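Form 7-S
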Amino acid sequence: MKKFTKEDFAFQITVVNGKKNSKGAIDCRNGHEIGDAYHCEYGCPADFCQKAMLKVFPIMEAVRAGGDLRNLGGDSATSIRFCCPDGVVTFSLEVDKR
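Output:
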């Protein structure tokens, strides 16, 4: 694959919380665990949940368009927490402007 553009932003997505099952593990179909971290610029990071990507991708697009994540409920202009579509895992998204 040949990328034709240099990305202006990089993202880190980290698992920060989740609903646990009777065995104490997060009851996540994709197997996410607290502390798992994923890095990406544009595409979906390897092994990251595709359903959660559907939720976070529009947030990433808002950042690329110059948006401030506080307008979406974020802790700062460059960080926000979001829950997966299944309501099981909570993620943190951190933005690195290059």
